[in-house]
Amino acid sequence: MSSKADSRICAYCRQAPVVVAFRPFCSAGCQARDLNAWLSDRYVMPASSEEDELSAMSALDNGDEAG
Ligand SMILES: [Zn+2]
Asked: Cα of 6 to ligand 1 centre, how many Å?
């Protein structure tokens, strides 16, 4: 059996040991801040790049004229 004393560190600040009540964080503050970051990350819309795909296609179209 291996017993490690301080293998669990707060997932947010990575400085304080995890408290069971707030796993995997060290405190309610870190728990709330991490949740906040996670939520705001979800609300960010993914940027679509349709224009990039279109210009790539017309670039392919150009190669047929040389003969
Ligand atoms: Zn923390």
From this structure: 14
Is residue 21 a part of any domain in this protein?
Answer: yes
User: What is the per-residue pLDDT across 3-28, written as a single tens digit (0 to 9) for each?
Assistant: 454 569 999 999 999 999 999 999 99
Q: How far is the CA of 14 from the centre of ligand 1 (A)?
A: 6
User: Is 1 part of a structural domain of the chain?
Assistant: no
Give the predicted TM-score (pTM) of the model: 0.52
Distance 3 CA to ligand 1 centre (A): 22
Nearest CA among 18, 36, 35 for reference residue 27: 18
Q: How far is the CA of 42 from the centre of ligand 1 (A)?
A: 22
* Cα R_g (the chain), whole angstroms: 25
Tell me which residue has tokens 């405190």.
Answer: 27
